[in-house]
């Protein structure tokens, strides 16, 4: 792990600087690009020891709950008339996360030195993302920082709850599959070898299912290290491939075409798109700038390309709904609702309602998927146990049948 100082700029030309600890320069560039930033200069500050690279750093992260709490409390204190620096000092002392407290302290020092809050936040791009900073900047420009922070806190809270529900829906299937794999592994490593020794001793005639079971058991016992290496290698290789432009595109297209999960993935992307765009437009950020920020945040290359095309059309004077309505990756409701929003001048409200719609749709799809997965998992578990028991009993049955 190494410590890097960096400077970058976003699509509007605003500069961001900061210090971050990452594996290498390539990882830092990828992180900045994911945040919608273009690296300008990167300089390695110092290299950490091998011990520091091996031992994980605890307490060097800020959770979404802490960001929500920070934003909500800051908005409350500013609304009450407390000076910005005093509010930040109070939040610095209240924070139980030493790392976050240090970051707030650095923000306080920058603000006291005459720097705008948005500029001070931009030095900590790993903690506060581009959307957060853009909204704070819009609040400072319009003199409505407290209102922007309240809206931002509410949006972050909804986003966190939505992610929590999404993850929570897969807890039960994950536990069942994990226990199934654990039980099967224990059987293969500890139980089957003892039965193999017994069958060899009594000279039992082994049927094909039992021979396959013994072969798998021997392979797992003798080549467990190879299985681990293959698993880790496949996982790492997939991650590296996914970070490349071609790999990201292939994986994105593949996922979006999956029968059930593809629809869920599309719904989650559309929820993020409408939620973020509505928040940015509601803060008074120009629509083209807002679209560029959102396009850089989306994980799917297909949707990024769709938004890039929409941006080029909007820049030439076309209403936003037209390029989105003709693009098949965006559902018809997007074009219809955006047309209403543009004609009535209530784009932020329309986008907010769309985000609620897509979030509800996503929750229903995930709930239906997990409900359907439960019986499928039980059937697979039953078949696995049945094959295992049959493979164990068959040699004994054949042996008793000889007498």
Automatic annotation (TrEMBL):
The chain crosses the membrane at residues 170-192, 223-242, 273-295, 376-397. It is found in: Cell inner membrane. InterPro entries: GspF/PilC, T2SS_GspF_dom, T2SS_GspF_sf. One of its GO terms (cellular component) is plasma membrane. Keywords: Cell inner membrane, Cell membrane, Membrane, Transmembrane, Transmembrane helix. It is a multi-pass membrane protein. GO terms for biological process: protein secretion by the type II secretion system. Pfam families: T2SSF. Residues 70-193, 273-395 form the Type II secretion system protein GspF domain. Belongs to the GSP F family. This is Type II secretion system protein GspF domain-containing protein. It comes from Candidatus Curtissbacteria bacterium RIFCSPHIGHO2_01_FULL_41_11.
């Amino acid at each position: 792990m190494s410590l890097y100082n960096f400077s970058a700029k976003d699509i509007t030309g605003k500069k961001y600087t900061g210090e971050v600890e990452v594996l290498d320069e390539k990882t830092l560039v990828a992180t900045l690009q994911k945040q919608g930033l273009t690296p300008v200069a990167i300089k390695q500050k110092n290299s950490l020891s091998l011990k520091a690279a091996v031992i994980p750093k605890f307490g060097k992260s800020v959770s979404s709950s802490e960001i929500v709490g920070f934003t909500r409390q800051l908005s409350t204190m500013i609304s009450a008339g407390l000076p910005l620096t005093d509010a930040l000092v109070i939040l610095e002392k209240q924070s139980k996360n030493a790392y976050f407290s240090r970051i707030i302290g650095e923000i306080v020092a920058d603000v006291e030195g005459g720097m705008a809050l948005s500029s001070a936040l931009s030095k900590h791009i790993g903690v506060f993302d581009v959307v957060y900073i853009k909204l704070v900047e819009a609040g400072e420009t319009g003199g409505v920082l407290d209102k922007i922070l309240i809206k931002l806190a509410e949006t972050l809270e909804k986003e966190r709850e939505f992610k929590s529900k999404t993850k929570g829906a897969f807890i039960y299937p994950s536990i069942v599959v994990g226990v199934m794999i654990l039980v099967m592994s224990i059987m293969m490593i500890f139980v089957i070898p003892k039965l193999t020794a017994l069958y060899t001793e009594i000279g039992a005639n082994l049927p094909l299912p039992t021979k396959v079971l013994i072969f798998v058991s021997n392979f797992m016992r003798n080549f467990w290290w190879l299985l681990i290496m293959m698993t880790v290698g496949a996982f790492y290789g997939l991650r590296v491939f996914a970070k490349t432009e071609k790999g990201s595109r292939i994986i994105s297209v593949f996922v979006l075409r999956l029968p059930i999960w593809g629809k869920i993935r599309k719904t989650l992307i559309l929820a993020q798109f409408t939620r973020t765009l509505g928040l940015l437009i509601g803060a008074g950020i120009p629509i083209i700038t807002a679209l560029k920020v959102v396009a850089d945040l989306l994980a799917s290359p297909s949707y990024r390309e769709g938004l890039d095309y929409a941006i080029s059309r909007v820049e030439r004077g076309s209403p936003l709904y037209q390029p989105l309505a003709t693009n098949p990756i965006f559902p018809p409701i997007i074009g219809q609702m955006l047309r209403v929003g543009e004609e009535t001048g209530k784009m932020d409200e329309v986008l907010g309602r769309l985000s609620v719609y897509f979030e509800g749709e996503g929750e229903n799809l995930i709930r239906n998927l997990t409900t359907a997965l439960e019986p499928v998992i039980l059937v697979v578990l039953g078949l696995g146990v049945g094959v295992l028991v049959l493979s164990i009993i068959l040699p004994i049955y054949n042996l008793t049948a000889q007498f």
